[in-house]
Amino acid sequence: MADIGWITGHSYIVYGPLALAAFSVVYEGLPTYPDAGRPWRIAQELDVNIFHTSPTAIRALRRAGPDEPPKYHHHFKHMTTVGEPIEPAVWRWYYDVVGKGRAVIVDTWWQTENGGFLCSTVPAVHPMKPGSAGPGVPGIHPIIYDEEGKEIPPRSGRADVSTHGQRGSCDRRSDHRLDSTWAVEFPGIAGMSPRSDGRCAATPPGPRGCW
After folding, report:
1. What's the CA gap between 19 and 4, in Å, rounded?
2. Which of 36, 143, 166, 190 has the fewest beta carbons closer than 10 A?
3. pTM value?
4. What is the DSSP string of 14-69?
5. What is the spatial distance between Cα 134 and Cα 41, in angstroms, rounded to a whole number?
6. 6: number of Cβ within 10 Å
7. What are the Cα distances from residue 165, in Å, to 112, 139, 146, 154, 162?
């Protein structure tokens, strides 16, 4: 459930389903109109089994109708939360009430500039942790630096950084303002929020860069 004009909207509503020969449900209007049960009613009527949305939408649905999901006979096997951090309490409502304690939740972290996920839990491979996007995906290696740009063990630091993968969509060849704006502190790396457990950001991202 996302605005089709948002990057994750067209990625998950248009490109992803087309690439996988899957069906995607598109509807017009607000998810809470005429009532907060609209998403779960649609899921029940159309037998939707994958639910994708953002923490902002989850918070809005929880606020507008915290007891609505159990009224419907929908059955999700997979749910995602992307776009910004999700509080552990909201994550638990999403898992327990919306997913009925059975759907796996995939919380991804990435930047528009990267063009793909940087951190994410992988179902049946990584344990889910409320409020955490999980470890780096294959090819991405999160690193934490101190104020001087030195790598430190997993704990709170200046920037939680990756990567050894060439996953960027910004062209620095023709516009060096990107260097002076985003990569001035630690050249060649993209900034993320620090985490004490070695996982990727669960708080808003810090300095950002393309590579």
Report:
1. 16
2. 166
3. 0.76
4. IIHHHHHT-------S-TTSS-TTHHHHHHHHHT--EEEE-HHHHHHHHHH-TTSG
5. 31
6. 15
7. 16, 6, 22, 20, 8
119, 132 in Cβ contact below 8 A? no
CATH classification of 135-211 is 2.30.38, yes or no? yes
Render the burial of 180-211: b for 16+ CB within 10 Å, e for the rest.
Answer: eebbeebeebbbbbbbeeebbbbeebbbbbbb
Phi (first) and psi of residue 37, to 5 degrees: -90, 0
Q: Which residue's structure tokens are 């939680």?
A: 160
Structural tokens at position 30: 């607000």
Residue count of the chain, please give it.
211
Tens digits of per-residue pLDDT, 146-184? 777 777 776 555 545 444 444 444 444 455 555 555 554
Q: Where in the chain is the domain with CATH 2.30.38?
A: 135-211
Q: What single-letter DSSP state applies at residue 193? A: -
> What sign results for the dihedral spanned by CA atoms 160, 88, 39, 107?
positive
